[in-house]
Amino acid sequence: MTKSKLLLLTILGLVTTAVFGQEFTPNYDESKIPDYTLPNALVFEDGTPVNSVEQWDARRKEILHLFEKEMYGIMPGWEGGVHAETVYQNDTAMAGQATVKEVKLTLKYQRRELEMYLLLHIPNSRKNAPLFLGYNFYGNHTTTHDPKVHLTRSWVNNNIDFNITENKANESTRGVRIKRWPYQEIIARGYAVGTIYYGEVDPDFDDNFRNGVHALLKQPSDSSSWASVAAWAWGLSRAMDYLETDEKIDPDRIAVLGHSRLGKAAVWAGATDERFAMVISNNSGCGGAAISRRQYGETVWRINNRFPHWFTPNFSKYNEKEHLLPFDQHQLLALIAPRPLYVASATDDQWADPKGEFLSAVEATKVYRFLGLTGLPAAEMPKPESPVIHGTIAYHIRTGKHDITLYDWQQYMNFADRFWGAW
Ligand code: GTR
Hints:
By secondary structure, the protein is an alpha/beta fold. It has ten helices and eleven strands. The chain has a single domain (58-420), classed as Alpha/Beta hydrolase fold, catalytic domain (Rossmann fold). The chain has helices at residues 3-15, 53-72, 183-188, 212-217, 228-243, 261-272, 300-306, 329-334, 354-370, 406-420, and strands at 18-19, 22-23, 82-93, 98-109, 112-123, 129-136, 192-197, 249-259, 278-282, 341-346, 393-398. The chain has a nine-stranded mixed sheet with strand order 3-4-5-7-6-8-9-10-11, with helices on both faces. The longest helix is centred in the N-terminal third of the chain and has 20 residues, at 53-72. Beta-D-galactopyranuronic acid binds next to loops.
């Protein structure tokens, strides 16, 4: 490990020591990982092995239900419609290569409403474009310099670098996140891309679920009520409801993707909504792709204490008791099977446990193989910048920090080309 990397990890450790007065020092030492046995995705809870594809379907439901009950919370069904209104459209963006439009999606339930804005970049060269769908962290306007893209009115995380105070978006943040959204490159490769500000679906703070979709649906709460990660996943499904009606998009070729906490939401959306034909986890870490039992970097205790609103109350039962979890995150990845899945890590993102993310994909491979697919064709963790993309599960680790970069996007597009044809 280089000195600077060590320093970074130390700083991260210091920053994360005090959560509600309790000490937390993340473990970054492989030799200190507790011994663990992973629950087998191919054995039912009563010990019966899974012997057929039909039995896997039943086991899949069993695993899904356990994740709902113990971790993400049970999502309510949705019978309401999604009313779509295009509030801005430019058919000749990017020198005529793309159509940019922003669609206001209004979800109506009883007499209440929730609005979320879907910003779409669609290639003009193609009739039925495949699409990448993912949330952004600070508002659609941060992903572009286009002055017509709306400034979110929802609660936003404060950020000193972006001069966001009082939890309000402001004009000076227009375009501050364009690096994470390489629209030009995506369009040039024939893909469409859609993004929504995640806070419009559920503002990311602990308010006992009084706002966002929770307020829209007003579900009674209990120990397995849906929390924020599930709410964000649910919002992606509502965007999917709309995308199925957009004639410029191919609804059978929609990949759901997300970075970090939004990667957790993307994987859960992929697990719960099989309309997503591909799932991409970018540095999703604890509560996403990483194996919880490794307790490397962020742990179940730490995430539940720092972000008490992300998971259902039941999940706290497993604070420092990961060995009692009836599942682990490799089973979450297995729920994506047989659909293509991409898991990506970054070298300086030890907090998210790159090795745990890789091992999770390796374990999920057992289910893919059971279904006659390759899964991830790698037993050893590849070197940085050596993506393994020739299986049904892809993996790469990139040099650098916790982020989603052009390099990451390029690999996702290479992977998608394999299934959906290069343009
Ligand atoms: C961190 C959190 C991670 C990850 C990250 C992010 O503070 O511990 O689980 O979600 O935030 O979303 O950027």
